[in-house]
Amino acid sequence: MADPAWRAVRGRVLTFLAPPLGAGDGASYRYLADGLVLARDGRIAAVGEASPLLATLPADTPVDHYPDGLVLPGFIDPHIHFPQTQVIASYGAQLLEWLQKYTFVEEQRFADAAHAAEQAAFFFDELARNGTTTALAFCSVHPVSADAYFTEAERRGMGMLGGKVMMDRNAPPALTDTAQSGYDETKVLIERWHGRGRQRVAITPRFAITSTPEQLAAAGTLKREHPDLLVQTHLSENRAEIETVRRLFPEAAGYLDVYDRFGLTGERSLFGHCIHLTEAERRRMAETGSVAVFCPTSNLFIGSGLFDMGQAREAPAMRVAVATDVGGGTSFSMLRTLAEGYKVQQLLGRNWSALEAFHLATAGNAAALGLAGEIGTLEPGAFADLVVLDAHATPVMANRMARIDGNLEQELFVLMTLGDDRAVRATYAAGRLIHAAS
Ligand code: GUN
Ligand code: ZN
């Protein structure tokens, strides 16, 4: 009998070593044309050329071989809404109307533990089918939604982050907590889930419009009391949203300053969207080490605007991440997300290379979550969270691949431009197969 603690995945192995400086940056990654990732007890024990590594393994070690497959660290989605799986594809509204008309209606259903559990199973199936092995998610205001989320993640051995949203105004009464109950319920979730196995709780004030100053202060208190927790919220997504924040917080210098005043900026804070930041706000994001999360499918679908990656990288450079933002976003696929991200940059007259895009979706997003070295990489010691991609998955992809002459960067560009869940051949969480294409 093979020792079940060991598992090997053989294929064309790719992992990033540093943020690529642009297209053609061969020093930014390691590629093995016939490589092996060896997992032991859920973590990567070794990565190297297949032949010599195989020779060191006990003969009965299980080896999953994908001769054409590209083996990468699993994708990371650092901004997604767990209760919005049935909000995707809601027609004809921009942010504030979209929230009231669709999202706040749907999220009320997550007061029901059975509904939350059923949707959690669907949510994690869908992440796995798309090669995403870690996500940072907004749950609904109901603690049972966060319990359902973490229970299902734990059951599958996936490392997930998330929190119940705190929202105590400008939402239906069935969807609001209070400054005190939002604080108390988050505390309970932290005690129950934070650091339990791979699960991590995040402080989650939805956005400035749905929190009173008292609630933002409570969120700031939580952050001070638990400095290792991430904070996630939304910032500067939509013009009408920014105007409303200005009216609600006239004393603040701007939208980011609302969060800053309550101690909610910093290296462990992730702000979804950040499309319409002023230069002063970009400087403050950079100074505080806060992360701007680019959500291209959402920004296009809700008509919010174009996030400029080139500008984000210029001094004062902001930390950035890239995410789906389902259900404002229209796909669970990080490949689809990268495709739309590329198109957004094209509309701004910029390029976004496949190397930069794949780096961001793996090691870059891991760094944004403060989990560099743990996930998003194939370095020994990291969790064996893997995705195996197939750039020939559809007729159009196969036909296009016939013309790339084995060029890895072109293959990555084909994958991100034409790929989706069909290009995901297998997904592993902590060395365990959680999805295999049929
Ligand atoms: N701003 C506040 N809540 C949300 C949300 O659920 N989705 C998006 N895209 N923006 C938000
Ligand atoms: Zn969002």
TrEMBL record:
UniProt entry keywords in alphabetical sequence: Hydrolase, Metal-binding, Zinc
Family matches, as InterPro entries: Amidohydro-rel, Guanine_deaminase, Metal-dep_hydrolase_composite, Metal_Hydrolase, Metallo-dep_hydrolases
PANTHER family given in the database record: GUANINE DEAMINASE
Organism: Chelatococcus daeguensis
Function per UniProt: Catalyzes the hydrolytic deamination of guanine, producing xanthine and ammonia.
UniProt xrefs under Pfam families: Amidohydro_1 (PF01979)
Keyword Zinc: yes
Cofactor: Zn(2+)
Domain spans labelled Amidohydrolase-related: 70-433
Protein name: Guanine deaminase
Higher taxonomy: Bacteria, Pseudomonadati, Pseudomonadota, Alphaproteobacteria, Hyphomicrobiales
Pathways involved: Purine metabolism; guanine degradation; xanthine from guanine: step 1/1
One of the record's GO cellular component terms: cytosol
Reaction catalyzed: guanine + H2O + H(+) = xanthine + NH4(+)
Enzyme class: hydrolase
UniProt-listed Gene3D superfamilies: Metal-dependent hydrolases, Urease, subunit C, domain 1
Cofactor note: Binds 1 zinc ion per subunit.
GO biological processes: guanine catabolic process
GO terms for MF: guanine deaminase activity; zinc ion binding
SUPFAM superfamilies registered for this protein in UniProt: Composite domain of metallo-dependent hydrolases, Metallo-dependent hydrolases
Entry EC no(s): 3.5.4.3
